Request: fold
Amino acid sequence: MQLTVNGETRSFQGPPNVAALVAELGLDARKVAVERNLEIVPKSAYAATAIADGDRIEIVHFIGGG
Reply:
């Protein structure tokens, strides 16, 4: 499966949903915001939001500081 993640085309074995993609990328789902094909995906819908070949995914990772 080919996805564009943050502007970079990448190949995956087929994460079935946003939650699986975030996990495969090694990110903490509590600290990211995800947009799929120009639509923000609510955290509560990560597991229910399917990913298809050719989707465009943008992921923003929140970093705390002080």
Summary: The chain has one domain: 2-61. The helical segments are 18-24. The first strand starts at residue 2 and ends at 5.
